[in-house]
Design brief:
Elements: H1 4-15, H2 23-35, H3 38-54, E1 56-57, E2 64-65, H4 71-74, E3 79-86, H5 89-96, E4 103-107, H6 126-132, E5 139-142, H7 148-161, E6 167-170, H8 186-194, E7 197-198
Length: 200
């Protein structure tokens, strides 16, 4: 029979692999799980399993959904002429939670990063070009995080989309340089979108 402490060590090790969870946080979470009732643990396990089994990528924007087309892309009340481009699905949710953006989204699934071997062909860029070629999209808002990779991705997309007759803007100041979009508060994100500037 396995030593009980080995079970706990394994759980702590697996929890510490989650983003933002260090050894101490993983240990606290593990001991908290030990104190939870069986039904509570079962609900947590079911929620994780359901997410893995039922969440997919939206065929239009590349965001997360429980069906082929997400609720935002299926909403006929949205402004189809404005598309906000983000690096990750979590960034889309951050902006959407402000309740102040009524356009559409496009998720790249990353950013251009030569050091990590990620080029334009590795991102969801071709479908963005297709969306912009139909004449419906009038403006593309680039909401990349203000990092080196984010800046490189924004410049690349701008050079790609502007010749197509689309106005390309970038979210304004207010986001700390080098930070991720999901660390900014709602007021900062709203201000950044409202004061977006056309890319030269």
């Amino acid at each position: 029979m396995q030593n009980p402490s080995l079970y706990l060590d394994t759980l702590i090790r697996e929890l510490s692999r989650l983003p933002g969870i260090g050894g101490k946080s993983a240990s606290r979470l593990a001991f908290h799980l030990l104190k939870m009732s069986d039904p509570e643990v079962e609900r947590l396990i079911r929620a994780i399993t359901d997410v893995k089994s039922n969440i997919m990528t939206c065929s239009i924007c590349g965001g997360i959904s429980d069906r082929d087309t997400c609720s935002i892309c299926a909403d006929e009340g949205r402004e189809t002429g404005i598309v906000c481009v983000v690096e990750h699905a979590k960034d889309m949710l951050v902006i959407e939670n402000t309740g102040r953006f009524s356009g559409m989204y496009h998720v790249l699934a990353g950013s251009i990063s030569p050091l990590d071997g990620i080029g334009p062909e590795d991102l969801n860029i071709y479908s963005l070009q297709e969306r912009c070629s139909g004449g419906v999209v009038k403006e593309v808002i680039l909401a990349m995080s203000p990092t080196v990779d984010g800046d490189a991705t924004a410049l690349y997309l701008s050079s790609l989309l502007k010749p197509m007759g689309v106005v390309v803007t970038r979210i304004a100041h207010g986001l700390p340089v080098g930070s991720d979009l999901d660390y900014a508060d709602s007021a900062t994100i709203v201000k950044s979108i409202e004061e977006r500037r056309e890319m030269k």
